[in-house]
Design a protein that fits this description.
- The chain has helices at 27-37, 71-79, 104-115, 124-128, 133-140, 169-178, 233-243, 277-287, 319-325, 337-345, 362-366, 369-383; strands at 50-53, 62-66, 84-87, 118-121, 144-153, 157-164, 192-201, 216-229, 251-255, 260-276, 296-298, 304-314, 329-333, 356-360, 389-392.
- It is of the alpha/beta class.
- A six-stranded mixed sheet has the order 5-10-12-13-14-11.
- β13 (329-333), α10 and β14 form a beta-alpha-beta unit.
- α6 runs antiparallel to α7 (233-243).
């Protein structure tokens, strides 16, 4: 009988099996915990994230985390008796009309389903999350003070403004808050009120709460302002009309400009002290798992590096954001010849200098995220009284297996 690998943490400790009698969560509970950490809505529109196969009602006791759902990783999951294989890269990124076992991807699905092992994908929603893939890469190479390299826009919000008699202001704020208004970060029931006077003349067909028909009314009023998610606009306005004492309340709905979100693709941070580009490349090489490629570097080895932009996975679409960040260096994967060459010819860093480039293997740049994802999943489920044991695949799924150095002469 196969023995299950054990999760080795950065501190050297290994995760043990779930304790006897502990409650195993259902797959649906695990997926809910993952969706809370890595909202599917934050994935790129071309991506394919979420549950690929698995019965939501089945219990999950063991979870294997890996970057790629390739054949050897599927075998590792089944040998370890995993109930769930949690991966970063999609198995079925492009639409398919079948998963027959006549293809490698189809065989993977068949093997997992037959063994009762679910497959779940967390891809660009993990890239955008905080903490996410690029946070892990930034941390292992010594960066702090992290901010998004390409920030997502914050949620669309409204400001709802109305005018109410002073004795009804508090109950109106309560009603709007219950409908979803007044949430600012971790604060709830946020509102601004200011005193003033209003005037109106009620028509013959009205039933005024204040004043009389056909007579001018001058009343004390409170201006109430609250922010609300734009998606909740109709619900908030319905609550306002229901709670407001006036027959025809005056309401302003102002669409607010979006703030930058703390989430997004890539990260920018700083080293605790400046180092040479050559030294920083050595730090990167030591921090990431070994690959045939190693670390490719473009730039003067002696140049000073302090502020660094990183992007786990393919990052050569973000050079404009890298230049705007003022980074001395950019660490990512899959840099192509032409974008890299153009980046080195275009200023944008300190004093207008282009950032140095450090290119690592795609798999290696994303692998550091797995340990933190495993720990957070265990902790999130534990808060709900459930226990899972996670372990990290140590199979190197970078496709390159050896490298032959060029024997030609160096041309400068």
């Amino acid at each position: 009988m196969a023995t299950r690998p054990r999760t080795v943490r950065p501190d050297g400790r290994a995760t043990s099996e779930p304790a006897a009698g502990s409650r195993a969560p259902s797959l649906a509970e695990v997926v809910a915990a993952l969706d809370a950490r890595y909202p599917p809505a934050s994935a790129q529109d071309w991506d394919a994230v979420g549950l690929v196969c698995g019965d939501p009602d089945r219990p999950v006791r063991r979870v294997l985390l890996a970057v790629d759902p390739v054949t050897e990783v599927v075998a590792e999951a089944l040998e370890g008796q995993a109930d769930l294989l949690l991966v970063h890269h999609p198995l079925l990124l492009r639409p398919v009309h079948g998963v027959a076992a006549t293809s490698a991807k189809g065989r993977a699905v068949h093997r997992l389903v037959t063994a009762g092992c679910a497959l779940h994908v967390v891809h660009t929603n993990a890239d955008a999350a905080r903490p996410g893939v690029s946070d892990a890469l930034a941390r292992v190479v010594g960066l702090d003070g992290l901010v998004p390299l390409s920030a997502e826009a914050g949620p669309q919000t409204d400001k709802v403004v109305t005018f109410v008699p002073p004795d009804a202001a508090e109950s109106l704020v309560d009603a709007l808050s219950a409908a979803g208004a007044g949430e600012v970060g971790e604060y709830r029931r946020c509102a601004f009120s200011s005193a003033g006077h209003g005037t109106f003349t009620a028509g013959d067909a009205t039933h005024p709460a204040v004043g009389r028909r056909g007579e001018r009314a001058d009343v004390a009023e409170v201006r109430v302002e609250m922010v609300a998610p734009r998606a909740a606009r109709e619900r908030v306005l319905a609550a306002l009309r229901s709670a407001h004492p006036y027959e025809e309340p005056a309401v302003d709905v102002l669409e607010l400009a979006s703030w930058s979100s703390p989430t997004g693709i890539g990260r920018v941070g700083s080293l605790s002290r400046p180092v040479s580009l050559e030294r920083f490349a050595e730090v990167v090489a030591a921090a990431l798992p070994s690959t045939v490629q190693g670390v490719r570097v473009a730039g003067d080895p002696a140049t000073t590096v302090e502020r660094v932009a990183v992007c786990g996975g393919s990052g050569d679409s973000l050079f404009d954001a890298v230049r705007a960040s003022g980074a001395d260096a950019y660490l990512t994967a899959d840099l192509r010849h032409h974008p890299a060459s153009e980046a080195l010819e275009t200023g944008g860093g300190p004093a207008g200098a282009p950032p140095a480039l450090l290119d690592v293997a795609h798999w290696a740049s994303e692998w550091p995220w797995l340990a933190g994802a495993a720990s957070r999943l265990e902790q999130d489920l534990a808060r709900d009284g459930a226990t899972v044991a996670c372990w990290i695949s140590t199979r190197r799924t970078d496709p390159w297996v050896f490298r032959v150095p060029s024997s030609g002469g160096l041309v400068r």
